[in-house]
Amino acid sequence: MVLSILQGARILATGSAVPDLCVKNEELSKIVDTSNEWIVNRTGIQERRILNKKEESIITLASLASIKALKNASMNPLDIDLIILATSSPNDLFGSAAQVQAEIGAYNAVAFDLTAACSGFVLGIITAAQFIQNGSYHNILVIGADVLSKWIDWSDRNTCILFGDGAGAVIIQSCAKEDNGILGFQLNTNGKEAHQLSIPYEKNYIIKTRNDILDINQGQFKYLHMNGKEVYKFAVSQVPISISKCLKSLNILPEHVQWLLLHQANKRILHAVANRLSISFNKIISNLNKYGNTSAASIPLALDEAIKDKKIKKDDIIVISGFGAGLTWGTVVIQWKC
Ligand code: COA
């Protein structure tokens, strides 16, 4: 989609945070029937960070990542107009964004959660860009944070080897139209395949109220469930189509892309997508060997690392794609303007 805009939007700064506890593949091989070799060969993951300290939560991680992004932007938290927290693992079913707002002292900001699993950060950037490009807001904090470790069945080798916890944040700021850095996007959802990857809610008992006036269903969320093979096939077939459509709408050729930043799910998925687009592997930004799949956090975590490593230069074109539960997937193309 090509945007018609009143003012430009650009990513000003990034920040990230991960828990201290590092769990290596060898340690997982002591709790489920797996091996370091299997995990590295099939996924590229070597270790992941897991939240285990009682005093830490998704709010701690999201706030820390945000404070670092604010510091890197030399920005006062009171200047933030809006906070979008992309997460599927909030501390409170009503959302956690408001608590992040309070924690970082961004008292002038409206704050809400956005739930779109591993596509959440891409949707967060696009949502923020709408508020800026239509002239409503000037400074928006977009956070991708997830603590899926609390929804994993740690006896299921099909899933427990894949995921890790973390948070990443970006500050998106308004700018002149000519400096616009959020160029366009392409988004998709296929709810018919929702069962391939979910944390389902199960109704398991009925409460009868006094005098049997009401029967009320109650239950609880179950563990994360995934059909790995189907999710793999979905990602490698659909993500290249989304990227191609988005680039075409912007008249950008794949060879003019400097960086491919995909949701960090599996090294084989990253390579297969790059292959289908004829984008060279050395343009892939990846750090999933250290963090595994951190869901909504994976893209901003990898972006922050690439910025710190000074890989990304001014005016570089970065193709960012998220994919996952929903099923939801999509692309945003940005040009780095700092
Ligand atoms: N360790 C060792 N063996 C394992 C294993 C593990 N952790 N997990 C599965 N296996 C076994 C299977 O039981 C199977 O054994 P079998 O042939 O005796 O039945 C064998 O390894 C092959 O399993 P398969 O599911 O075909 O492996 P795969 O090559 O498809 O890799 C995934 C599995 C999960 C790594 C891969 O399907 C994947 O990455 N899918 C996408 C997941 C994803 O990205 N999800 C998040 C999207 S946001």
Describe this entry's structure for a reader.
It is a single chain. The chain has helices spanning 25-28, 36-43, 58-72, 97-104, 120-133, 157-160, 228-249, 267-276, 288-291, 298-308, and strands at 8-17, 22-24, 47-49, 82-86, 110-114, 139-146, 166-175, 182-189, 197-198, 201-208, 215-221, 225-226, 259-262, 317-324, 328-335. Strand 10 (201-208) and strand 11 form a beta hairpin. It folds into 2 domains: 8-178, Peroxisomal Thiolase, Chain A, domain 1 (3-Layer(aba) Sandwich), CATH 3.40.47; 182-193 and 225-335, 3-Layer(aba) Sandwich (Peroxisomal Thiolase, Chain A, domain 1), CATH 3.40.47.10. It is 30% helix and 27% strand. With 338 residues, it is α+β, with helices and mostly antiparallel strands. The protein contains 10 helices and 15 strands. A 5-stranded mixed β-sheet has the order 1-7-6-4-5, sandwiched between helices. Strands 8-15-14-13 form a 4-stranded mixed β-sheet, sandwiched between helices. Strands 2-3 form a two-stranded antiparallel ribbon. Coenzyme A is lined by residues 34, 38, 42-43, 118, 157-158, 161, 226, 228-229, 231-232, 265-266, 293, 324.
